[in-house]
């Protein structure tokens, strides 16, 4: 009996090992095939984009050299325009459009994509004015001086106004590094600000908006604005010694993305704001930007059990996800 039991146990163990090995081979095959397809697609896409970049590169290089000639000896003015004025212009232009919807509820074809239905319809004008004043203070008294202070360090490390523009592939590499650095610094600084020691005195201000709108992406205590908003965006270009063109693109993109994350509307063909919107509702989930570190640290487990997680996709149609994936199923009449 003991011999038979041992033989059966051995067979069962062999089957399990075979099953595990088979699963590992299938997983490796799927991942390997997916990786090859991704690399092929990426190479094809970057080849076409590089051709476009190369074809227009002479034009942009000529325009850049013309700007350098115009601001010769006053490159710091050029840096101020590219690193501060243009990203700020993009921020307020985009938020200006969103504020029209926030304050009037119109046009309906945008307001129908609201994530938290029934909230900010319309937004509280007193609360909004107070928030805009804080945002302007953070930009004028903190963001602008920090970026100006950044200039001599960038000039020492690698002149941001150097004559040659970066190549397309180099810019893509920089963008990937900027995004990775921002994810790490924002996640851990943001999570630290949720510690009881710092939350009540600093981060609670930002969470006054449980149903966020775009402009409050920069509504924060000054300390938070420095630690969580500015440093994660600035460190990447400083480490890479980036060209002004890369800095302008990155700062503009970062401001647009954080606006989308806070805007309160899950609009077609734009990145999903469901992840960060859920953070404003529940506070103790979804601390990062991309969600990678939240997955590794398990700070998105509750989020993954919600309808908001199901809606956390790129909307490729025009039916609001709040209708196609409602929070509560409609009752049968």
TrEMBL record:
Coiled-coil region(s): none
GO molecular function terms listed in the Swiss-Prot or TrEMBL record: iron ion binding; oxidoreductase activity
Pfam families: FA_hydroxylase
Keyword annotations from UniProtKB, A to Z: Membrane, Transmembrane, Transmembrane helix
Residue ranges constituting the Fatty acid hydroxylase domain according to the UniProt record: 176-299
One Gene Ontology CC term in the entry: membrane
GO biological process: lipid biosynthetic process
Compartments, as annotated in UniProt: Membrane
Domain of life where this protein originates: Eukaryota
Transmembrane segments: 28-49, 76-101, 135-156, 168-188
UniProt keyword annotation of Transmembrane present: yes
Designated name of the protein: Fatty acid hydroxylase domain-containing protein 2
Gene symbol of the encoding locus: FAXDC2
